[in-house]
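Pilot study result, target chain (127 residues):
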Amino acid sequence: MACKTQSEIVPELSLAAILDALSDDIRRQIVYRLFLEPRLCTSFGDLGSKTRLSYHYAQLRKAGLTSTEKLGTTLLISLRWKEVERAFPGLLKAVLKGTAELNAAPKKPAKPRESAHPQKTPKKKSR
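Predicted structure:
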């Protein structure tokens, strides 16, 4: 997985950057899972392709929400809970509460999709 480690310089926490990073459903799911425990980059495969996830990891890292640590050949992503909570008390709790409620909500049954190519009905030959 194309996950990059964080540089030694930790980004300053900006409310605008954090809110922008948390405006995406996938990134909120990543933050929710990281709240439960730090995870390997490869543990989010069900949320999208490697390329897309790398983009989301970078957005979270740039906003200062996560840190990435290299452990041998693997990369561990952690939520910077204490730092964010110190700068913006209650922000992550509110976001995580909303994400947890969405996760717990019953899923609506999928609507049957109309085919992009409707089946052709054979025409009757006229005599």
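One observation from the pilot: The longest strand covers residues 66-71. A full batch analysis is planned for the follow-on phase.
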